[in-house]
Amino acid sequence: MNVQDLDSTARALVAEGKGILAADETVPTLTKRFDALKIVSTEDSRRDYREMFCTTPGAAAFISGMIMYDETIRQKSAGGTPLADVLTKQGILPGIKVDTGAKTLAGSPDEKITEGLDGLRERLKEYRALGARFAKWRAVIRIGETIPSPRCVSANAHALARYATLCQEQGLVPIVEPEVLMDGAHTLERCENVTGFVLHSVFHALFEQGVRLEGMLLKPNMVISGKDCPKQASVQEVATATLRCLRRHVPAAVPGIVFLSGGQPSVTATAHLDAINRLGGPKPWAISFSYGRALQDVALETWHGKKENLKAAQQAFHYRAKCNSAAAAGRYTDGMEREAVGR
Q1: Is 219 a catalytic residue?
Q2: Chain-centre distance of CA 17, in angstroms?
Q3: Segment 144-161 mean pLDDT
Q4: Which tens digits make up the pLDDT trace of 245-257?
Q5: Of 83, 141, 218, 341, which has the fewest CB atoms closer than 10 Å, so is most exposed?
Q6: Which domains does the chain have, with CATH numbers?
């Protein structure tokens, strides 16, 4: 482990005004999104789609890193250059998703445990050789009347910590992603309580496994009302509850927090990020984004699998990234969305 390299990479990923593009959807997930737009999903069409983001002119002004899927990091551009090298030349750090998905937790059919630790050391060595400089592992926590159970949270926290230790051993910055899902009818208060419990458990496990906090990033959910909750919290309420929860449970040694969008509409995710950054008081970490669909959706719809739409799709992605960059600095405004519509 080169401590200085880990720390500098972690800081580079949360450089001022920059965030991370999560483009690590599995083949079945991306195929489902393609099917909805009647785009044929093939290895080449998926490559063309991901390459669209890798080659967007000026994206490096707002995007510090891109999380790739196993298929993508092994692919070459249409011009024959490995996509990881394309990103590096753009000034964007290549990353890789390394978990193998959430499976049913034994004895608790309503809860999930993320798998992928078997053989992870060897896979990380290979990904490092392929150009990856950071990695991601996602744990999934669902809120219900009697869940999450302590054993579900503990098992996922332990897996996240073991993954993070292995990443740092191999010179990769781990992004630790404990996602409390927004599915359900839970209140904002219930989400805050569960998120706090999860974060407490995760950082306890990270400490036990000897993870260097300065060489990692946290990718949490925002504290929001469940999608089916009758009372939806306002943008300001979400920001206040989220920052309060982070202050209580995330050590100051962590260099950055990069939120997941978690199914929020693109504009809503941007507004929430901006509101969090506008709040006063101590924020010992950089607060930015690691969005997937909140950055991709407009570009995907614009592209529609057609070469003639490539430039327009890249412009759509660039503008979405620009809006989130502004939000990461607390300088986003509604006028930026109106400007986008008028373009």
Answers
A1: yes
A2: 16
A3: 97
A4: 999 999 999 999 9
A5: 341
A6: 3-342 (3.20.20.70)
